[in-house]
UniProtKB/TrEMBL annotation:
<dbReference type="GO" id="GO:0009264">
    <property type="term" value="P:deoxyribonucleotide catabolic process"/>
</dbReference>
<keyword id="KW-0704">Schiff base</keyword>
<dbReference type="GO" id="GO:0016052">
    <property type="term" value="P:carbohydrate catabolic process"/>
</dbReference>
<keyword id="KW-0963">Cytoplasm</keyword>
<comment type="similarity">
    <text>Belongs to the DeoC/FbaB aldolase family. DeoC type 2 subfamily.</text>
</comment>
<comment type="pathway">
    <text>Carbohydrate degradation; 2-deoxy-D-ribose 1-phosphate degradation; D-glyceraldehyde 3-phosphate and acetaldehyde from 2-deoxy-alpha-D-ribose 1-phosphate: step 2/2.</text>
</comment>
<keyword id="KW-0456">Lyase</keyword>
<dbReference type="GO" id="GO:0004139">
    <property type="term" value="F:deoxyribose-phosphate aldolase activity"/>
</dbReference>
<dbReference type="Pfam" id="PF01791">
    <property type="entry name" value="DeoC"/>
</dbReference>
<dbReference type="GO" id="GO:0005737">
    <property type="term" value="C:cytoplasm"/>
</dbReference>
<dbReference type="InterPro" id="IPR011343">
    <property type="entry name" value="DeoC"/>
</dbReference>
<protein>
    <recommendedName>
        <fullName>Deoxyribose-phosphate aldolase</fullName>
        <ecNumber>4.1.2.4</ecNumber>
    </recommendedName>
</protein>
<dbReference type="InterPro" id="IPR013785">
    <property type="entry name" value="Aldolase_TIM"/>
</dbReference>
<dbReference type="InterPro" id="IPR002915">
    <property type="entry name" value="DeoC/FbaB/LacD_aldolase"/>
</dbReference>
Length: 318
């Protein structure tokens, strides 16, 4: 996997976001057109679905996770699509793998061991995931622990209260300290957008996280009542694009929570392509947080190569 330059961040610059206005109805109308204005079919759809596989952060964040479960997840990450389907697609010389495997900090070491030599990075949630309400020193220690275990990416959660009270300095300082704790690991800032109430808050939190040095901005933990939605994604991408125009730095994006089907993958890829262009269709700048989506993608690819739909149980589960 190629990498891009880290986001060095900026000083906190409220002028970039304080006066922003977001038209909710316009954002909803724009989002509603994504699945209706154009579709991809046949070999083009297959190509887009393979691309989606390479951008998946294959995830397990369950209370009953074990090293054995993580090992199975890692094996699926190495071979996310069955060998016969890969061969039929003409990809045997360069079979696809997922973008990363995402686990809790205590499961990082088993994941790193299982993925050794694959080139697939291990991502770890941290900082009191999912609520993020443990004391800051403990959250920073959790980051350092995960990095020490071998995590190459850290998915942190922000304190939503800083956004709801508009305390941008506190949010900036928090994310900046987390970025420093990551060392060489990439930082993905989870905004938990379902808790932020308004799209204006989503835009502002996105901008502050990027100014503090986040390499990715991510919609959700997957544990909120409302997770990744297209209007929220659109708002975050506009913030990401604006930040790029201000600084010249490319920042990644990760929707997560509630994404389950191949159709969901195609819709989010379309949003990325239309808003940011072809460079953001690579795992260095786009990830999909998912656990069950891969099974449906594999099922759709099998239909493309055989003309038949298999039962979802026909495909190996991670």
């Amino acid at each position: 996997m190629t990498t891009i330059d880290r986001n060095p961040g900026t000083v906190l610059t409220p002028e970039w976001f304080e006066c922003i206005q977001v038209n909710l109805s316009a954002a909803e109308r724009r989002a509603a057109t994504l699945g209706t204005r154009r579709t991809v079919k046949k070999e083009y759809q297959a190509a887009w679905l393979v691309k989606a596989v390479t951008c998946i952060d294959l995830t397990t964040l369950a209370g009953d996770d074990t090293p054995g479960r993580v090992h199975r997840l890692a094996m699926k990450a190495r071979r996310p699509i069955r060998d016969d389907i890969v061969a039929a697609l003409g990809l045997s010389d360069s079979p696809p793998t997922v973008g990363a495997v995402c686990v809790y900090p205590t499961m990082v070491a088993p994941a790193v061991k299982a993925l050794a030599g694959s080139g697939i990075p291990v991502a770890s949630v941290a900082t009191g995931f999912p609520a993020g309400l443990t004391p800051l020193p403990q959250r920073l220690a959790e980051i350092r622990y995960a990095v020490g275990e071998g995590a190459a990416e850290i998915d942190i959660v922000i304190s939503r209260a800083h956004v709801l009270t508009q305390n941008w300095q506190a949010l900036y300082d928090e994310v900046k300290s987390m970025r420093e704790a990551c060392g060489e690991a990439h930082l993905k800032a989870i905004l938990a957008t379902g808790d932020l109430k308004t799209l204006r808050n989503v835009y502002k939190a996105s901008m502050v996280a990027m100014q503090a040095g986040a390499d990715f901005i991510k919609t959700s933990t997957g544990k909120e009542d409302v997770n990744a939605t297209l209007p929220v994604g659109l708002t975050m991408l506009r913030a990401l694009r604006d930040y790029g125009e201000f600084t010249g730095h490319r920042i990644g994006f990760k929707p997560a929570g509630g994404l389950r089907t191949a159709k969901d993958a195609l819709t989010w890829l379309s949003l990325m392509k239309e808003e940011l262009g072809r460079p953001w269709l690579e795992p260095e700048l786009f990830r999909i947080g998912a656990s069950s989506m891969l099974g449906d993608i594999e099922r759709q690819l099998e239909h493309y190569v055989t003309g038949r739909y298999a039962s979802i149980s026909h495909h190996a589960m991670a």
